[in-house]
Amino acid sequence: MRIGHIADTHLGYRQYNLEERENDIYDAFNEVIDRMIEERVDVVIHAGDFFDSPHPPIKALYVAKEGIKKLREHNIPILTVLGEHDTPRRRAMPPHLLLDIPILGIGQVQKVVINDVAFFGISNLKGHRVELLKEELSKVDLLTREYNKSVLIAHQAIKKFLPFEEAYELEMADLPREITYYAFGHIHSRVIEQFGKGYLAYSGSTEIMRKSEISSWKRHGKGIYIVDLEGDLPEIHQINLESIRPQFELSYTQNDNISKELRAFIYMLFEENIPPKKAPILKLNVQGDSIRKPEIIERVRGILEDLVPHKILRYDVHFSGADVLSSLTPEELKEIGDLKTLFTEYLGDAKLGELAFELYSHLWKDDIEGGIEVCMRHLEGEEE
């Protein structure tokens, strides 16, 4: 049996409130469907966050409907579990039911058998329901005994791959060990690891959702896994999507010749290479203690808007260093400075104190996105 494993398609997501970014999500989904058909999979597994919201826009429902229709025309069934994004509150109806997409395991593990392969699914559980999640997973090994091959579908974070307190629900020891292939969703980066009698995998998101995903996309791409269950161990083939809008993260210090280096990058991107099919997104990080922000922003604007008009979809300049807090009053700066010392003393570690201080500098201004980026950057640093 050949399985197509996808997750975190987030249909309806509109990054920066740009229509182009919403359409990028649909482009990736449509390419996924076409590749599944080309690869002649026997079943498609979607490991949660099919939609970005339990109340997706009409276009998201239409794109999903057309994609599912294509699969059914080729007699390819699809199984999915709910992720935290598309789980409705108060037991309302999930949008999947409008499209007759089978949802597995709402509140308990559920089994479906296709071609003698057992598929066990459980939809996302978190918070006070994590104990129920662990209890349900503990039943799975016993249920697999009458099948040679089995697949577990779940949308949960595992501590090994997302080691932040309150960010994960499971540890490796909580997982059943008799499964052939563990098809997980939730973590947007790709993961493949041998575990138990098979392999555990996160297929990752099908588009770049956050700045923190750019480095992972450059290393591992975005797309799907095709899983062949015929052998003793699953054979996993990584399929990269071609419709991804390119995103680049460039870092400078205050001592760099930013104009020269940015011009060189733009020349390389648009002149030396084949130009991207889609206008890219640029993320510029500038670090230093005495940065003239308006001057740098104007310089960047001049280069990007004069040299490559209409070739960049969006660019952002992010500053880090002492001047991140330059808009505060002297009294506020003194208070924040004291807090930095307190963080370090309380946590007993200079690195953690620096992380806590950086988080505080974003979150006190309700910059949630900035706080998330700090956490993801810290996590990537730990992985390296």
CATH H-level superfamily title of the largest domain: Metallo-dependent phosphatases
Briefly, what CATH class of the largest domain?
Alpha Beta
- Could you give the count of β-strands? 14
Report the principal-axis shape: globular
CATH topology annotation of the largest domain: Purple Acid Phosphatase, chain A, domain 2
Count, helices? 10
Helix content: 25-40%
Distance from N terminus to C terminus (CA atoms, Å) equals 36 Å
Gyration radius, in Å = 23 Å
Proportion of residues in extended strands: 15-25%
**Count of the separate structural domains:** 2
Structural class: alpha/beta
* Oligomerization category of the chains in this entry: single chain
Features:
alpha/beta; Rossmann fold; 35% helix; five-stranded mixed β-sheet; 384 residues; 20% strand; six-stranded mixed β-sheet; Purple Acid Phosphatase, chain A, domain 2; 10 helices
How would you portray this structure in words?
With 384 residues, this protein is α/β, with parallel strands linked by helices. The chain has two domains: 2-240, Metallo-dependent phosphatases (Purple Acid Phosphatase, chain A, domain 2), CATH 3.60.21.10; 247-383, 3-Layer(aba) Sandwich (Rossmann fold). It is built from ten helices and 14 strands. The chain has helices spanning 19-38, 58-73, 130-137, 140-143, 214-220, 258-272, 293-307, 330-347, 350-363, 368-383; strands spanning 2-6, 43-46, 78-80, 110-114, 117-122, 149-155, 181-185, 191-195, 198-202, 223-228, 235-240, 247-253, 281-287, 314-320. Strands 4-5-6-7-9-8 form a six-stranded mixed β-sheet, covered by helices on one side. Strands 3-2-1-10-11 form a five-stranded mixed β-sheet, covered by helices on one side. Strand 13, helix 7 and strand 14 (314-320) form a beta-alpha-beta unit. Helix 8 packs across helix 9. The longest helix is centred in the first third of the chain and has 20 residues, at 19-38. The mean pLDDT is 88.
